[in-house]
Amino acid sequence: MANIPIVDFSAYSHKIKHGDRTKTAKEIDEAFRNVGFVYLKNHGVSKERVQKCFEWSRKFFALPLDTKMRAPHPPGGSHHRGYSAPGLEKVSQHTYDANELNKLREVPDHKESFECGNTTDAAQPNIWLPEAALPGFRDFMESFFADCSALIHQLLDALSVALSLDNSLSPTHSRSHFQLRLLHYPSLPFPELAQGKRSRINAHSDFGTLTLLFQDSVGGLEVEDPQTGGFRSVEPVDDAVLVNVGDLLARWSNGWWKSTVHRVMSPPALKSETEEEGGVEAVVGGMVADRYSIPFFATADPETVIEALPGCWSNENPKKYESVTAWGYVQMRMAALYSSSQS
Description:
Blueprint lengths: L5 E3 L1 H4 L4 H17 L2 E5 L5 H15 L3 H4 L13 E3 L13 H7 L7 E6 L19 H26 L16 E7 L2 E2 H5 L6 E4 L5 E6 L5 E4 L6 E3 L6 E6 L1 H6 L9 E3 L11 E2 L2 E2 L1 E2 L2 E2 L2 E8 L6 E2 L17 E2 H10 L8
Helix pairs in contact: 2-6, 3-6
Protein name: Clavaminate synthase-like protein
Organism: Macroventuria anomochaeta
C-alpha cells in the first residue's frame, strides 16, 4: 500500500482562489482512491483547540468511575451517546450473527469512550455529566464539535469538486448528525495484547461517510494493505488530521473511493522495552502506555438514499450496490457493537 499522502487543505479552510481548490480536491480524490486515507495540514482546527480537547479528554477519563457513570451510554447501539466503560463495546467487521459476536467478545476491547453529537439531534440527545462534576467540559465539547463539523462540510465540498458534481454533497449532511468521540486506551501489560488476551480495537472499517482522527503521539494505529492482508503502522503527523473514507462513502462512490480496514494495536516502539519514539516511551516495565485519540464520525442525513453518484458508474462499470438509506445502514452496523445482553 502507498504511504498516506499529506495534502495542504488551506484552499478550503482559508478559501484561497478557485484553481487551488480544484488541485486540492484532486489530491484528496487520488488519496481516497489509492489508500482510503489522507493527512490534511492547515485544516482550520487550530493546534491550540486540538490540544485543549486532549486536555479535556484526560480530565474526563481521570474522573472516578462512579462519576463518569453519571453520564452512562444507554443499553444497545441505537442511542450512541455518553460514557462507555472498558469492555462495553466490541468493534467488529461485518459480523452480525449473535454467536459470532459473542465469540468475538471473549476478547474484550480494552478502552473507554465518551460520545456526543449535535445539540439539535433530537433522535440521539447528548448525555452529559452534571456541570459541577467537570465544569466547562460540555461547553468546550459543543464548540469543538462545531469546529469539526465545519471541516467535514468543507471536505464534502472538495469531494464534490473532485467528481465534478452539479451540487455539493454538503447539503446531504445538512443536519450535521455527526459524532464526536473521546477515546482512552488504558495502560495494560504488553503480553496480554501481544498474545491476544486483550485487544484495543479490532480490524474494522468505519461505516459512515468520513472520519476525522486526531491522535496523540503514542501510536498504535495500523492500516491494512489490501494486496497482502498485512498491517502497517500509521505514524501521527504533527498538526495534521487524519481523514478516512467510511463504508457509506465507498458505497456511494460505487467503490471509487476505498474504505480501508484499520485497527489499533501496540505502538511501534515495542521493539524493546526501553526504545523511545517521538519522545514517548511506549513500554514501561512491560506495560503498554495509555493512548488517547479523538475521532469525529460523519454520516449523511438519515433519510438520504445512498446509491452510486454520477460519474462513478457506467455500462462498463455498473452499479455494485443496492440503494440504502443512511439511517438504516448505520443502525445495522451500530447494533453489532454491543452485546445482546444490553439490547
